[in-house]
Amino acid sequence: MELEELQQRLTPFCRAKYADNAVAVSAIFKMPGHAGFAYGFSVQSKDSTDKWYLRLPPPNVKLQGTADVLRQVAALDAMPDQIPHCQVKWSGDDSQWFGRPYFIVPQLEGDVVRLDGAGWVTKLEQAARINMARQAIHALVAIHQVDWRQAAYLGAPVAFEEDVTRWDRFLEKAADPHCLKLVPTVRALLLKQLPEDTPVGIFHGDFQWSNLFYSPQGKLLAVIDWELVGVGAVLNDIGWYATFNDPQAWADPQNRGLYMPQADELIDMYLHAYGRNLPDINWYRALAAYKFSIITGFNLMLHRRGKRHDPMWETTRESMQPLLERAYSLLA
Questions:
Q1: Does 1.10.10.10 match the CATH number of domain 111-331?
Q2: Could you report how far apart the first and last alpha carbons of the chain are, in Å?
Q3: Of 46, 78, 175, 227, which residue is least crowded by CB atoms under 10 Å?
Q4: Regions of the chain where pLDDT drops below 70
């Protein structure tokens, strides 16, 4: 949606929600990110200026899976106040406003952690960075302890086997299939070693530094971007988080992100915070590496075909094979 059109839609929306025909919408901009359609904007009334964040699904797609933004609303609404998250102010599927479902949350002042070796986080003391990780882990454990039945819109838990096989359809369309030669081998090992028992609950689906929003002092303000939220094995999240902080999984000669706690340390924090032994974490680490390798191939295809311009995937492509090799080493 062009910003001019969005301005024309936001103005009557905000006047209706504020019950004030004098409010004005300004400072509309597209939010950064690699998926979805998100925008920031400001609303001026006679008493204050409020800053908001609007999330919309892509146009002309089936409103299911990641395109169903109301799944994110269901998850956010289920979170208790002690879990840092964005409170949904408005949401709905009334197409009169934006032509598709939407939700709106307040903008926060701060930033996520970027693993390019630059930026505000590298200026913090090591103890502060460790504390940032500990805050994230405690938030993650709290998310996993939420009763998933409070978010019935998310559906029934995903079966272990389905969490392996549901990526097959993305594999068929992935670019550079030669980088995915290990997929059949890793897939077979994952299915052979399916966990027999694991805690079930709400999982975030993309729990990593770029989806953790902190104050400039390193206080966790919100877990953001719940696009991949679901119900199933909660260890999906710690496996994902560990994989994104595992140097052996990535083609990264610059060693980006090594200033933050790494996979083994994050897992130890999680086990300590959870308070019980949790088997099969390596299986979930392998699953995360397997999934992201395929996801990279699929998004690389979308980028190269001009369906979703995002050159980041050309860089991430270099890690498709290392991710699968790491998955194999964790399972073999």
A1: no
A2: 47
A3: 46
A4: 33-36, 117-118, 253-256
